[in-house]
Fold this sequence. Notes:
It is a single chain. This protein is mostly helical and 100 residues long. It has two domains: 1-46; 47-80. Helices cover 71% and strands 0% of the residues. The protein is built from two helices and no strands. The protein starts with 5 loop residues before the first helix and ends in a 19-residue tail after the last helix.
Amino acid sequence: MQSRSPLFANMADLMTDAFSAAQAAGDEARAVFRAQAERMASELDLVSRDDFEAMKAQAEAASSEVEALKARLDALEAAAKKPTAKKPAARKTAAKKSSS
Length: 100
């Protein structure tokens, strides 16, 4: 007595092959879709996430540097506005030449 019917064995082999083909077709479709999406993104002149993060870090660093320079400038301007006690400068009088 056979444990497997040849009809069912053939049907099982056929289904296994069909599932393998479907999986391969799905993988191929994903690869094509990904390539198409990357092509469209490059045509749109989009930046990558890494480039975006690098530029964001540079902008944040520049912003903090600007804030530090503003604070330094304000301190220098405040120091320049403070009245300083200076001695009055001695004026030199020009000697007038007498005409003869």
